[in-house]
Amino acid sequence: MERKKTKKIMVGDVAIGGDSPITVQSMTNTITKDINATIKQIKELEEAGCNIIRSAITDSDDAKAIREIKKHINIPFIADIQYDYRLAIEAVKNGADCLRINPGNIGSDIKVKEVISACKERKIPIRIGVNSGSIKQEYLNKYNGVNANSMVESALEHVRILERMGYDEMKISLKASNVLLTIEAYKKISKMVDYPLHLGVTEAGPVWNGTIKSAIGMGSLLSMGIGDTIRVSLTGYPVEEVRVGREILRSLGLLQEGVDIISCPTCGRTRIDLIELVKEAEERFKFIKKPLKVAIMGCAVNGPGEAKEADIGIAGGKGEGLIFKKGKVYRKVKEELLLDELLKEIEDL
Ligand code: SF4
């Protein structure tokens, strides 16, 4: 797939847009000023592979907490501000690497200018974002309700404010909970601007439904070369968002890190508890950073052949199983040792 070339911006030391790798973001759900809880959660998210974190800044104590939080984390921090320009400035002064704020919501030009000049000093980008639920009435009237046109026009209004004030360090999101509308809106804006796009299907729902909606929405856009950074929004623990986000990228060949598990759906030939084996493998593979395709197959008859694109794999049998590499049987192992031996082989790789 050919990726649309967008402007490259820097969020802390992480590049977004241009030819930089597509990043996975998440948002903490702790009270930001509860510094210990927020740091703990961000560390967990880092461990899961989160590239950039965002937290809600609701008052001055949240903004002040950024300084301490930043000392303990290794990924860039985005301050999510709703309307209050003073909080935006305070967040920047306390070390935020990016702001999530809509200039059109800040108020007078003087207030917007103050925010921009704080950002300019440290070249801190701003994420502009429109959700299908927050489109300005003017555009709802003009375009007959919520649709890609009203979403795009609403976002462009914020873009123009920043451009008029001479600031172009920005990225844009256009999220809807409706998957097709999300796709249409991003496709449309992608033809109109070169700023990097932050993809997301908003309020996607609980983990299971939300994963499917996000994979379809963001996966479709990414497969068209649209999108520079992604956030999966799930009603669940944020680590799940990162896991799903990374898997979406991995499925499209956009993330070359960690284990891609290939496993069969099981059938009447399966003689081992493959479902449990795969669950355990998922847990134990989490810490492997090397990009590998690992197969876990239910039977020795079809397993090695069906999974020959895997770097290494195991196939279950009766009381014992096979370890195979690139489809060729390598050795036999007792069933209870299959996973341990597979991990040893992976370490050797
Ligand atoms: Fe069935 Fe073997 Fe294929 Fe798994 S690999 S689905 S057990 S035939």
Please report the number of helical segments. Answer: 13
Strand order of the largest sheet: 8-7-6-5-4-3-10-9
Number of strands: 15
Query: How confident is the prediction overall: mean pLDDT?
Result: 94
The end-to-end distance, rounded to whole angstroms, is 30 Å
- Specify the CATH architecture of the largest domain: Alpha-Beta Barrel
Please write the CATH class name of the largest domain: Alpha Beta
Shape category = elongated
Bound molecules: iron/sulfur cluster
Query: What's the story with the biggest beta sheet?
Result: 8 strands, parallel
Q: H/E order of the elements?
A: EEEHEHEHEHHEHHEHEHEHEHEHEEEH
Q: Give the strand content.
A: 15-25%
Please, how many domains? 2
* Helix percentage range: 40-55%
The CATH homologous superfamily of the largest domain: Dihydropteroate synthase-like
Supply the helix-strand structural class.
alpha/beta
CATH topology of the largest domain: TIM Barrel
| Rg for CA atoms | 23 Å
Uncertain runs are: none
Family: Belongs to the IspG family.
Domain IspG TIM-barrel: 6-245
Keywords: 4Fe-4S, Iron, Iron-sulfur, Isoprene biosynthesis, Metal-binding, Oxidoreductase
Binding site for [4Fe-4S] cluster: 264, 267, 299, 306
Secondary structure topology:
Blueprint: E1 9-11, E2 14-16, E3 23-27, H1 35-48, E4 52-56, H2 60-72, E5 77-80, H3 85-93, E6 98-100, H4 103-106, H5 109-122, E7 126-131, H6 137-142, H7 148-164, E8 170-175, H8 179-192, E9 198-199, H9 207-223, E10 229-231, H10 238-251, E11 259-263, H11 274-285, E12 292-297, H12 303-306, E13 312-316, E14 320-325, E15 328-334, H13 338-348
Parallel strand pairs: 3-4, 3-10, 4-5, 5-6, 6-7, 7-8, 9-10, 11-12, 12-13
Antiparallel strand pairs: 1-2, 13-14, 14-15
Helix pairs in contact: 1-2, 1-10, 2-3, 3-5, 7-8, 8-9, 9-10
